[in-house]
Amino acid sequence: MAHLPYVEYDDGDAVTKQIYDKTEARFQMVLNIFKITGHAPEMAEKMWEIFFDILQEGDISWYDKELLILKATKMGDCFYCVTQHEAVSARLGVTPEKQADIVGVEYQNSPHYEPNEVAMLDLCAHVVLDPENIPWETWEAVKKYYNDAQIVEIVATIGAYLQVSKFGDALGVELEDVWVGHQPVLFNAEPPTSKAAQGHFEHFISQTPNV
Amino acid sequence: MAVVKLVEKPIAGTEAVYQASEEFFGHVPNLVKALGSNKNMCNSITNFMIQSLGEGRISWAFKELIVLKTLKAMNSHYSYGAHEKIAGELGVSDEKLGDLQNSLWEQSPHFTEAEKLVFHLIRQIAIDANDVQASLWERLKEHWDYGQLIEINAVITTFLMIGRVGDALGVTDSVLFTKPLSNN
């Protein structure tokens, strides 16, 4: 159970209803993470605008952004985000084999990854872990493939998903019922490093019906 | 030197957010200029940053303490000095700012129980956001309402993002506000 109650549509104010309507139109459902922000609509309105902007084609492709989101949120052990984006990225054409190879440094030698994607994911790993120690070679590789507007989008996507994943995980936001039965890819390829995240993962697996 | 070129004159679609930055900060911060080559990211991240600063459900002065503690906890450097300056201008004493460091706040007489619980939350989010205990949230709820707790969590995680983005891009803003804070 989340640490704060979700605000359902009928209980939301006008701004909240507007956000939920937009969310429903974009994602076909109002996710729990949106519902928990209904307690502070003025903050939610500005916060979610970032994600509406990211989750579409931009200066870099939505496909590339999904790779960044999977990498950044997997490194942060965010089971909620990884599950959602395993599904979104699959719809955009990221195969389960490619998803699985994003863990650790597997992507660097994976036949599923192009050199530009490897450069982008190397940068992602450094930004998540320690931006103070991004090697110049990493920037050189990124700059070989991406211009300034694209680099901004890469770094902003990583930053934004660190933000929302910590926001949701801290509040204990739960996966929606629709995910019961989903077969996790990334966390099966590499278990969570956090003991608490491992607990969330095992709880989810225990709910999966035997097929 | 930033990794990307700082965009001095707004590109199409960012004029309004540059103008909003001028009005809010008194100038366009370097972070906004660094984001300036990407219309969507410049708009949404700058607007969210502006929303996160200023008076809200919690006081701006306390938000600044949250920002400072978050930047420290995440080992982020972007705009730390600027936020110390803002906190000082909002009336936060040097003693209080000093006691924010490492674990000094735990025993400091300058912070209330409600404030200390928020620093516990920041520390736990920095260590492992998956492991924030229900008991901590229960104690937080004794002092803060739901809207305040969402705002607190949003400010923490926003500046986790801002710190990461600013540091990764190599941006500095030693001064964020060049106009009196009372005008906001």
SSE layout and pairings?
The complex is a heterodimer of chains A (211) and B (184).
Chain A: H1 14-27, H2 32-36, H3 41-54, H4 62-75, H5 79-91, H6 96-100, H7 115-129, H8 136-145, H9 148-170, H10 186-189, H11 195-207
Chain B: H1 15-25, H2 30-35, H3 39-52, H4 60-73, H5 80-89, H6 94-99, H7 113-128, H8 134-141, H9 146-169
Helix pairs in contact in B: 1-3, 4-5, 4-7, 4-9
Write a brief caption for the model.
The complex is a heterodimer of chains A (211) and B (184). Chain A is mostly helical and 211 residues long.
CATH architecture of the largest domain in chain B: Up-down Bundle
What is the rounded distance between the termini of chain B?
A: 30 Å
Number of domains of chain B: 2
- Low-confidence stretches of chain B are none
The tally of beta strands of chain B, per DSSP, is: 0
The CATH topology of the largest domain in chain B turns out to be: AhpD-like
Beta-strand level of the residues of chain B, as a percent range?
under 5%
Shape of chain B: globular
Give the biggest sheet of chain A. Answer: none
- What's the gyration radius of chain A in Å? 17 Å
CATH topology of the largest domain in chain A: AhpD-like
